[in-house]
Amino acid sequence: QVQLVESGGGSVQTGGSLRLSCAASGRIFSSFVMGWFRQAPGKEREFVAHVRWSDGGTYYTNSVKGRFTISRDNAKNTVYLQMNSLNPEDTAVYYCAASAYGNFDYWGQGTQVTVSS
Q: Cα–Cα distances in Å, from 105 out to 13, 27, 32, 33, 98?
């Protein structure tokens, strides 16, 4: 089993920054892929970014490229999402997730990010 706990959400104004953290525990393997997703009110959950535990390789959805940075600290079993130049469209509950064999099977409880104009 894998447990994921997010932190770092909050409220900021347009143009502000936040850093989300996801502490992972349990059976974490180097083959895992860690992802961030978000769900805005009335919308479906969407993919934001992912990082590979093994080599740190990353991938982003187009809407956050150049503004968000995903990273991991293997020693701390923690994944981060640095979010810069935030705008109201980034307002959502952000979820951390882990993929062992292709699907994201493990999820955190989510952390709220609110960006005001």
A: 33, 13, 11, 11, 6
Residue 115 to residue 98: CA distance in whole angstroms: 26
Q: Under a CB-based contact definition with an 8 Å cutoff, are residues 87 and 106 in contact?
A: no
Tell me the three state secondary structure of residue 67.
coil
Cα of first residue to Cα of last residue in the chain, in angstroms, is: 40
Per-residue tens of pLDDT for the chain, all 117 residues: 899 999 999 999 999 999 999 999 998 888 899 999 999 999 999 999 999 999 999 999 999 999 999 999 999 999 999 999 999 999 999 999 999 988 999 999 999 999 999
- Give the C-alpha distances (Å, rounded to integers) separating 96 from 19, 25, 43, 64, 106: 13, 13, 18, 16, 8
Q: How far apart are CA 86 and CA 63, in angstroms?
A: 11
